[in-house]
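Subject: sequence -> structure tokens, single chain

Hey, anyone have a minute? Need the predicted structure for the following. Not urgent.
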Amino acid sequence: MAATEEVLCRKQQQQQMGEDSGVARFGAAVVLESDTAARGRRCSNSTCLAVEGVGVAAFKRCGSCRQRFYCSAHCQRTDWTKGHSKECPALKAAAASVDAGGMPVASQQATKNQLEATMATAAAARMAVS
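Reply:
Had a minute. Here:
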């Protein structure tokens, strides 16, 4: 019985303050996820409004650079003539210089060379001790 009275009292207070039960009551800013982020990526063709996951099948990637996504072959052709043909080789080169973990391939080679040099030094030290 006391719980029902408490609920009624809260509702009455909310009405007096001009609030309804859906109002957030904490001091921190409320950050809402954008609709686009929740729905998926947009078509890379700047004139297309298609969003992946909203009435459109999964987007296909550019076969060369694999950095652009398109909802249709028409959009891919349109973007190609609008300038992706000039950007594609640079995007492909940039993607090739980074591995799946995001580490530059050149850094990986340098790290590998340092590791091999350290191992060779350690092996030489062991031989000298023996």
